[in-house]
Write a structure and sequence with these properties.
mainly alpha; 6 helices; 75% helix; binds protoporphyrin IX containing FE
Length: 217
Amino acid sequence: MMTAGTGLLAEGPTVVPEQIWWYVARSGGIVALLLAGLSVVWGLLLSTRVTGGRPTPKWLTSLHRHLGTLTVTFTSVHVAALVADDYVDFGWSDVLVPLASDWKPVPVAFGVIAFHLLIAVQISSLLMKRLPRRYWKLIHLSSFGLLWAGLVHGATAGSDATNPLYTVAMAVLVCATLFLTLFRVLAGRRRRRPDVASSIRDRAVTRAADRVNTVVS
Ligand code: HEM
């Protein structure tokens, strides 16, 4: 349930804005989205090997992991500050259930979905060694969904979406992600092609060997 709040409070010598949690929520959201984008970019740098081993994959993996953890931390700050704030009154169900919020329900739902995906990706990464690789990879790939949902959410729910700095930062993130994703897909295809060729060759060799065996016997 939500109610509209009042303006800024400037009482006494220390000026504490009444909407402090609202500002914490907004800045937390922006930092979380930037971190989520950087984490995806770092993952793509790792999988494409586009940096040619410098910095080392170990360093890239470690930073990728830290960026993921920081994304969860700042998203939690974003969500907790929204609940703490009474400028717009969010309850826990508003922030955890898609479309439960009365305030901009669809834009907020994109944020809730991004949050759920983020938690799934983070938990599956912690359980990586115990999960079958196929399932882990499938869940991990949903980070693309989480980033796009976060971008749509930020652009449609946020008050800073028209700020030039915000627009430029997000545009750079989107371009880097699209470029590296395309590179990854094309490089993946090129890598797979020799496998296909060698399996065709293997089959031809087996068939030829069978024919020789038949003639000999
Ligand atoms: C439970 C999930 C979430 C809820 C309920 C939620 C809610 C909100 C709300 C109400 C706003 C509007 C604030 C404003 O007027 O500026 C907002 C903005 C924003 N959120 Fe979320 N959010 C959630 C998850 C996320 C996630 C996972 C990310 C990024 C990874 C994110 C990134 C942002 C960004 C970048 C903004 C724009 C901030 C601004 O323009 O000042 N949010 N969110």
